[in-house]
Amino acid sequence: MELILIFAVIIVSAIACLMSKNRIVMEASSVIASLVAFFGSMVIAMKVATVGSYSQWSFFSVDALGAIIMMIVAFVGLAATIYSVRYLREETSKEIIGYKEVKQYFILLNLFLGAMFLASTSSSPIFTWIAIEATTLSTAFLISFYNKPTAMEAAWKYLIINSVGLLLAFFGTLLYFTSFQIGAEAVTWTTLLSNAVNLDPTIAKMAFVFVLVGYGTKVGLAPMHTWLPDAHSKAPVPISALLSGVLLNVAFIAVLRFKAVTDLAVGSEFSQKLLMAFGLLSVLIAVFIIFGQKNYKRLLAYSSIENMGIIALGFGFGGLGVFAAIFHLIYHSLIKSALFLSVGNIFLKYSSTKIINVRGVITALPVTGVLFLTGFFAITGTPPFGIFLTKIFIISAGIQAHPFLGVTTILLTAILFVGFFKHVVAMTFGAKPAEIKTGEISVWLILPPLVLLTVALTLSFYVPQFLLTLINTVVSQY
Amino acid sequence: MDLTLFQFILALFFLTVFFLHLVKKNSEATVLYGFQSLLVVILLFVFYLETNNIYSLFVVILMLLVKVILAPTFIFRLIKRDGLKFSASSFVSTPLALIIVTGLTILAHSSVFSSLGSIVPANQELLSLTLSALFVSLFLIVNRKGAISQIIGVLSLENSIVTFALFAGLEQSAGLQAGILFDIFIWIFIATIFISNIYKHFGTLDVTEMKNLKD
After folding, report:
1. Can you tell me the distance from the alpha carbon of A237 to that of A149, in angstroms, rounded to the nearest whole number?
2. Any idea where the domains of chain A sit in the sequence?
3. Cα(first)–Cα(last) distance of chain B, in Å?
4. Alpha carbon A237 to its chain's center
5. Could you report the per-residue pLDDT of A202-252, keeping only the tens digit for each?
């Protein structure tokens, strides 16, 4: 019932945005839909923690991993929607966008959230694929939202690279179906797992390569990451927050589900080696590009590539690494979304995304400055934030199993900290340009990132029992 | 199943992908894609005649509508409206492209991918040919600089996967296939809008001219 309610309110909200000529109706319907989706997701997650799974008809089935991702979609989605209301009003007042764009934005935002809910709750691998493809289609126009040549370029890259990636993932998905008799009934994630022993090992390996490259493109794993910094830097900030903080994880769960099937067919070593290779390459590329970065939104986008790499390494290392990777995924979603929303305030104040044009944020935007600085320390793994512990656990799992990889990861994350720190210090401190007035723009632009960071910090010290149950279940399955 | 008929249709299918590497005009590429899609529809129809499943007929009609009629119509309208007669060039020269196409075809037939061919041993040759078409379509996307050629490459890749699934006995239920076709339809619609916008902003469809975003 809860799941149907979530989809129903999102669809009704999208239709309301389409039909309405009143801005307030669009804003209110979107916020109410995200609020209902948030509470619905929490109820579903608690049910999954109690009884193990949640099913609705034969199309939807939420397991522990799906429940965690669903909560992330719902929570970050709610924060991004609330933030969008004020953010778009500011952009309208500056005549950056008009009424038509606002309408387009809220329709697509609802569809984007709906597609992510579908992808994380679908019981069928093909339905998951359709939903992830739908996320590409709903966000393409959000990336080209500002209708500038650079935005168009980013959106085209996004559309083509992701479409090719997803077609390869589709091919890989079909190869997994060879474990079934010809003409078998609709395949679900559960039946795919139970039939894994019937998979030809060579086909299972090929299928996983296609799936990893395909969905890995959407996750932003190097070397298929090239669309990500462009798309994340050109989209409106609430969308960048959702792309970086949520969408990458939605695609990652598809990889993880197929990993579980592959592991049953050929053992875990094959998928782990591939995840380690892609993970390390992602961290390596991100670290060196962050150093010379000139645009702060791209800086955050490369940080997402690095973090996806760390998560892939965690699953690749196995054992304690898997436990830490799940936590890392949750922390990254919350913190990266908060960071994107914070830089949205910086953009509104400075009207530039170039690092060189932004000085003295702490003076011009005192609260945002603190949020931005806190977010930086949190995302780079500084104590007391949870990412400090997850990185330590992932690296220690790596050092035990693969000492060279573990040590390399430590070095790379240390270099990344220095590179990131250099840019953040330059932006945060120093004298602000004289023409920039001091003062926050609105409390509604501060609350969403503040709440996201507060939850991330709270989860670093205290994890509710139901969430811990879900995480432990995921660890036992993957 | 009439193997000779399937071999003939698949040979034609592969030739459409091959010629997509050679044609210079966007309209020719669109006609080739339309013809390629028609071949897939014919294959699906033959499979329908064997199963007599009414839902399969629904998928055949839907595919005919989306891939053979609507997709080429959208692209033709775009070509006509914006005067996008010629496709931008490719990254590698035509002789080199043909050598790569040959190499990819050999690779698809090699022992590396023999396990994919043996999914249905009776269709081994057919599966290897569709795999060749898949690789060659992928190369088309990578090699072509023109935005229209790129979307035709993506659509050709999708056709190759559908054909592979058909001969490997991996086709999905009618409901899921309809869902996939709906996605493809929206994709085509969005891609053509983007092509039009790219032309407005850059005055060309050569994607190498889009170089404003640097690290």
Report:
1. 18
2. 2-477
3. 54
4. 14
5. 999 999 999 999 999 999 999 999 999 999 999 999 999 999 999 999 999
The residue of B170, B180, B189 whose CB has the most chain A CBs within 10 angstroms, and thus the best one to mutate to test that interface, is B170
Domain of residue B195 covers 3-214
Q: A178 touching B, CB under 8 A?
A: yes
What percentage of chain A exceeds 90 in pLDDT?
A: 92
Locate all alpha helices (DSSP H) within B64-173, ordered by sequence: 71-82, 94-109, 114-117, 124-143, 147-167
Is pTM beyond 0.90 here?
yes
Q: Which of B167, B194, B199 to mutate to test the interface with A (most CBs of A within 10 A)?
A: B194
The answer, yes or no, to whether residue B89 has pLDDT greater than 90, is: no
Distance CA A76, CA A69 (A): 11
Structure tokens at B86: 């010629």
Considering only the beta carbons, identify the residue of A160, A177, A200 that sits closest to B150.
A160
Lookup: tokens for A138: 């709903």
DSSP A221: -
Q: Compute the distance between CA of residue B207 and CA of residue B36 in angstroms, rounded to an integer.
A: 25
For residue A91, the one-letter residue type is E
Residues of A in contact with B120 (CB under 8 A): 182
> How large is the ipTM?
0.95
CA distance A77 to A71: 9
Tokens found for residue A470: 């879900």
- Residue A34 tokens read as 């995200």
Q: Which residues of A311-346 are buried (b: 16+ CB within 10 A; e: fewer)?
A: bbbbbbbbebbbbbbbbbbbbbbbbbbbbbbbbbbb
Tokens (6 digits) for A135: 């996320």
Calculate the alpha carbon distances from A12 to A29, A30, A167, A242 in Å: 8, 9, 30, 21
What is the distance between the terminal CA atoms of chain A, rounded to a whole angstrom? 28
Give the position of tokens 């997709």. B71
**φ/ψ bin of A52: left (φ > 0), alpha (ψ from -120 to 50), beta (otherwise):** left
CA dihedral A78, A158, A177, B13 (to 10 degrees): 150
Number of domains in chain B: 1
Alpha helices for A52-95 (secondary structure H): 64-93
CA distance readout (Å), B115 to A40, A89, B192? 45, 57, 37
Tell me: the pLDDT tens digits for A263-294?
A: 999 999 999 999 999 999 999 999 999 988 99
Is there a contact between A128 and A122 (Cβ–Cβ < 8 Å)? Answer: yes
Q: What are phi and psi of A382, to 5 degrees?
A: -95, 140
Give A183's DSSP letter: T
Give Cβ neighbours of residue A435 (< 8 Å, ≥ 6 apart). none
